[in-house]
Amino acid sequence: MSSGLTAANINEYGRFDELKNTVDKDKAKAYFEKLKGTTIPAFKVNISVHNLLQKFIIEDGFDIE
Q1: Is 5 inside any structural domain?
Q2: What's the pLDDT tens digit per position in 7-45?
Q3: Which string of b and e fits 50-59 if b means at least 16 CB within 10 Å?
């Protein structure tokens, strides 16, 4: 999985955006709300999804609760 990606080049060719577009927003919202213990607006869910996916890819994966 290691391909030398960084935060600066993660979206070359639009692949990262394509990946984010495949996320089930309802499931992501439920996951992050359970994780944080509070209601989260949709725009913050999108930010959380972006940050989690980016960290996962750059760090070559990790276990998610």
Answers
A1: no
A2: 888 898 899 999 999 999 999 999 999 999 999 999 999
A3: eebbbeebee
